């Protein structure tokens, strides 16, 4: 080995060892973001592409997708509950789930010491996976971005990783994330990834009584680290290195975390350093323009990230752009069951979300072989057909001064999403291109009164025309003190929500834009 090679080798090691220090001095070298909530919040602004997109596809896919599709439980937490209920009090609901799954697993695959979670890996083959055709389908039904899971709580990386338990070396023996990225770029939609890595050691804690206690598999089950993962700096270093590899290697536009920013507890700054590097490297890639989105479930300042509400919605119009993530499959990872939503409810919820300045990230559960079940695809096609008619009221739209009217009240918060039809009096609004769009969420009546457009309220004045998107029939309307009264035609362009395009002299949309800026 010559001297030049030695210098290169040691320089590389030195740079890796000093990576945190390098990140800290990046602002001095002209980078915008520093590793703190204050810097992230003061310098971040949601990119227009995300605000315009409205609709993305989430994909939970991995080891759990290949387990028997007829299991009664065990969607995204199979590897946690298959080892039994040791982490919960006996009377806790999840203890019963774990008891049931432990029994089912033992009867169908064997005792966890004989057949542990690691033994499912060879069953996950992805033999029919075609990312090009799947992403083409997602684009056809109106999705503008995709977010495949890069690593779930089960510690199996779906990419060519520095962590030996990964899909490139095991199972499918394919770089799954690279395949999604290439397909997204080919079809011109945005590419994101999600990481659920930080909770591995707590997720697999009960496995330590079984095969998780074997030193040969400790790096898979997180058995070398403290169950209280947020306080274990050694684990946070592992989390940082693997997540930075994901960012550097695949350069996603969107990075989703299943919680708050990992690695920021007990005076640690790994999470802040990673977030700053994600934003700074994205700006460097885009010639100084920030195009990055980071989804968090919570944090002290929502200006620093895009707030994500898991399986829930916002009760009111939000000042900052946000996102709902929910699951069409009904168990996140695939198992055989009917979709969690009808098209009517899914479209109604979607409209409510965008009227309040939000996006919808909708999860589909692919089979272990990489195919999309037809019952999920059918719901997506219905939504896609509706978007083809009404897309101008959705894509690129912004909230109006009021999000809507009607009796259905949405409670803010996670795990609280509506799953029932909206009423005939539920109405939502957006603005786009100088027009006001009025969504009739359940248009079962022919005669409609839109009370927010009352001449008395003066939220808009000088209504010039009213059209029904997808229809050429003339709409008969009149603006009165009670509201904008109109009659819908007998022939409807869609069996789901209908959208009116209203032209007015004074839309007042610019006032809302001033508020949110």
Radius of gyration computed on alpha carbons: 25 Å
* Order of strands in the sheet with most strands: 1-2-3-4-5-6-7-8
> Structural class from helices and strands?
alpha/beta
**Which fold name fills CATH's third level, the topology of the largest domain?**
TIM Barrel
Number of helices: 15
Classify the beta-strand content into a percent band. 15-25%
N-C termini distance: 58 Å
In the CATH classification, which architecture of the largest domain applies? Alpha-Beta Barrel
The largest β sheet comes out as: 8 strands, parallel, barrel
Write down the overall geometry: globular
Domain Alpha-L-fucosidase C-terminal: 421-502
Keywords: Glycosidase, Hydrolase, Signal
Enzyme class: hydrolase
Pfam families: Alpha_L_fucos (PF01120), Fucosidase_C (PF16757)
Describe the structure.
With 517 residues, the chain is an alpha/beta fold. It folds into two domains: 37-310, Alpha-Beta Barrel (TIM Barrel), CATH 3.20.20.80; 399-510, Golgi alpha-mannosidase II (Immunoglobulin-like). The protein contains 15 helices and 16 strands. It has an eight-stranded parallel β-barrel, surrounded by four helices. Strands 9-10-11-16-13 form a five-stranded antiparallel beta sheet, with helices on one face. Strand 2, helix 8 (176-187) and strand 3 form a beta-alpha-beta unit. The N and C termini lie far apart (58 Å).
């Amino acid at each position: 080995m010559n001297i030049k090679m030695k210098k290169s080798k040691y320089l590389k090691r030195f740079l890796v060892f000093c990576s945190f220090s390098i990140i800290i001095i990046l602002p001095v070298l002209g980078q915008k973001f520093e590793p703190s909530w204050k810097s992230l919040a003061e310098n971040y602004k949601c990119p227009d592409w995300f605000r315009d997109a409205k609709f993305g596809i989430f994909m939970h896919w991995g080891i759990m997708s290949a387990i028997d599709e007829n299991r009664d439980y065990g969607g995204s937490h199979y590897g946690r509950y298959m080892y039994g209920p040791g982490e919960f009090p006996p009377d806790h609901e999840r203890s019963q789930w774990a008891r049931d799954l432990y029994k089912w697993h033992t009867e169908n695959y064997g005792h966890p010491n004989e057949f542990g979670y690691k033994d499912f890996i060879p069953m996950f083959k992805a033999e029919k996976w075609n990312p090009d055709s799947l992403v083409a389908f997602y684009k056809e039904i109106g999705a503008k971005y995709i977010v495949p899971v890069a690593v779930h709580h089960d510690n199996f990386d779906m990419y060519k990783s520095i962590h030996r338990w990964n899909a490139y070396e095991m199972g499918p023996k394919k770089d799954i994330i690279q395949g999604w990225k290439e397909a997204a770029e080919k079809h011109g939609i945005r590419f994101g990834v999600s990481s659920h890595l930080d909770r591995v050691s707590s997720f697999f804690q009960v496995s330590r009584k079984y095969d998780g206690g074997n030193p040969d598999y400790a790096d898979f089950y997180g058995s070398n680290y403290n169950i209280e993962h947020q306080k274990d700096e050694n684990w946070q270093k592992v989390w940082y290195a693997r997540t930075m590899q994901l960012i550097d290697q695949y350069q996603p536009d969107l990075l989703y975390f299943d919680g708050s920013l990992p690695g920021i507890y007990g005076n640690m700054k790994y999470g802040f350093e990673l977030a700053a590097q994600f934003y700074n490297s994205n700006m460097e890639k885009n010639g100084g323009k920030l195009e990055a989105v980071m989804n968090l479930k919570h944090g002290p300042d929502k200006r620093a990230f895009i707030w994500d509400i898991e399986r829930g919605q916002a009760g009111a119009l939000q000042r900052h752009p946000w996102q709902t993530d929910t699951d069409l499959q009904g168990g996140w990872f695939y198992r055989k069951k009917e979709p969690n939503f009808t098209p009517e409810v899914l479209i109604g919820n979607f409209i409510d979300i965008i009227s309040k300045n939000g996006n919808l990230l909708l999860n589909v559960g692919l089979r272990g072989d990489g195919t999309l079940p037809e019952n999920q695809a059918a719901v997506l096609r219905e939504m896609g057909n509706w978007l083809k008619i009404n897309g101008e009221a959705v894509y690129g739209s912004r909230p109006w001064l009021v999000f809507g009217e009607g009796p259905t009240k949405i409670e803010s918060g996670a795990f609280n999403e509506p799953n029932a039809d909206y009423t005939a009096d539920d109405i939502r609004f957006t603005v786009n291109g100088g027009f006001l769009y009025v969504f009739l969420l359940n248009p079962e009546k022919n005669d409609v009164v839109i009370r927010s457009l009352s001449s008395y309220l003066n939220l808009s004045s000088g209504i010039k025309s009213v059209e029904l998107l997808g229809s050429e029939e003339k709409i008969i309307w009149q603006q009165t003190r009670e509201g904008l009264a109109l009659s819908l035609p007998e022939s409807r362009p869609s069996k789901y929500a209908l959208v009116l395009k209203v032209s007015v002299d004074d839309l007042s949309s610019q006032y809302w834009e001033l508020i949110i800026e």
